[in-house]
Amino acid sequence: MSGKPTRLLWRDITIFDGERELPAPMAVVVANDRIARLCPSAALTAADVAGATEMACGGVMTPGLVDCHTHLVFGGNRAGEFALRLEGASYADIAHAGGGILSTVYATRNASEDALFAAALPRLSALLADGVTTVEIKSGYGLSVADELKMLRVARRLGETLPLRVRTTLLGAHALPPEFDGDADGYIRLVCEEMIPAAAAEGLADAVDVFCEDIAFSPEQCEQVFEAAARHGLAVKAHAEQLSRLGGAALAARHHALSADHLEYLDEAGIAAMAAAGTVATLLPGAFLTLREARLPPVEALRRHGVPMAVATDANPGSSPFFMPTLMLNLACTLFRLTPREALAGMTAHGARALGLPDTGRIAEGWRADLCLWDVARPVELAYAVQAGRLRQRIFNGIPQP
Ligand code: DI6
Ligand code: FE
Questions:
Q1: Which residues contact 267 (CB under 8 A, 6 or more apart)?
Q2: Which of 7, 265, 274, 345 is a plausible cystine mate for 245, CB 3.0–4.6 Å?
């Protein structure tokens, strides 16, 4: 980046600041990579305006969208499984028959780093075109030390190639690889004693995730993973209570997890544990829709306990083949009954919190200048209509993107 200071000014815009819509026509001044000034347009001073480039007026500004839960790097696809599910097979049936996640594992192991990168690029570009400035990308389709690191390297490279922030998460405990059939404890030992140390040593992972379900790993096994992550200074997250109630969310909260995700089967004790730990509840309506789940996440109880709710795509080839974050705003409202304000906060301020990014996901003075300008009249429209092409401009790190 050049050392030349940049100063950009927007006036007369409607702002959703990550928590709420601000009442007056507002102005924003960005200086370098930070938001330097946020005030009603009428309150701008000569000093605010001096040396600033005037950007187009009008429209809605939000923080850049934060997609805090994706599995964007994978080989192959699961269109065949989609058809099987339409014929009545369940996600668990397919997993038990060696399909599902494992079929993506074979395709991912057989793909080179370059091939995985090339396949992920258009998926990530689709997120970008829909307003994403920060994305989390999980591994979890390699399930060997070499293949998990390969996936994380691809994720890092995506972040170096495209103008957005990529946070990487090691999801070694996603499924049991065929070499460890009948020996889940042995595989968890590999995750704890080799995978996590290697990912930490190479700086490839920002966090560690687990799949705590009866079709995946037990709370005891997940706890070992959390302890290994802590020994290596890595934050933790969990896929929990999506298909069964094992208490994974409460366990994650006890280990100070950044987030627990899915949560359809979450109970009151889990919610209380999350509230006490400040663990974010990440809601994934794309997976709920794809799997045609019947059980809703306990949104009202999460509200009552003041647990922040994030919303993400869960973009993956099996349970959520969706690469359009604003669609998730709509689904979070339509399926889960979030308000449009909650859905937007879920994909901005609370999404950033689910990634442990303290100065991202809000429009406030001093915060990172990751911003979106939308050609809509009100923020609620972003959740109301499902329509590509409304993003007028994306600003990443203070730099307007072409
Ligand atoms: N939960 C999910 O939604 C994804 N993984 C997980 O643990 C699904 C991954 C897949 O089906 O490929
Ligand atoms: Fe997931």
A1: 241, 245, 298
A2: 265
**pLDDT recorded at residue 2:** 47
- At 382 the pLDDT is 98
* CA dist., res. 283 & res. 310, Å (int): 6
> In 221-277, at which residue ranges do the beta strands (DSSP E only) sit?
235-240, 259-262
Amino acid identity of 37? R
Rounded-to-integer distance, Cα 295 and Cα 273, Å: 21
Q: H or E stretch including 40? A: strand 34-40
pLDDT digits (tens, 9 = 90+) for 91-117: 888 988 878 999 999 999 999 999 999
Which residues, judged by CB distance below 6 Å to any ligand atom, belong to the binding site of ligand 1?
71, 100-101, 104, 174, 211, 239, 287, 314, 316-320
Nearest CA to ligand 1 atom 4: 319
Alpha carbon of 371 to ligand 2 centroid (Å): 26
- Calculate the alpha carbon distances from 230 to 146, 196, 257, 270 in Å: 22, 10, 10, 21
371 token code pair: 């911003």
Rounded to 5°, angle at Cα 94 from 91 and 100: 85
